[in-house]
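Lecture notes, unit on protein representations.

Consider one protein chain, 107 amino acids long.
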Amino acid sequence: MYRYACPALCLFHRLSIVYTIYLSFFEWNGMAPTKTFVGLANYQYMFGDKYFYISLTNNLKWLASRSRSRSSWISYRLCDAREGRFISRPCAHAIFFPVTMSLVASA
């Protein structure tokens, strides 16, 4: 069942990541119909902010402590559920990627 959904999920995640990077070059509140192109100004602001480095450190600590957590365990079990490994590891991780990203975004 998952072998047919996996390509669509992987494509959806790749497109959403590309679109997020595209939006990072604009000043936009998410609701207004117009976006103002600012180029790398958002990145200059981000790297100049002291709270960015604090949150980056916290996220790296969280990643180190949770890298073998429940979502990784479930994805590995999905990979090995049958002898034929019906889900590849990247696709299994793509299925559980939103679980970890919501926690990283809230940190």
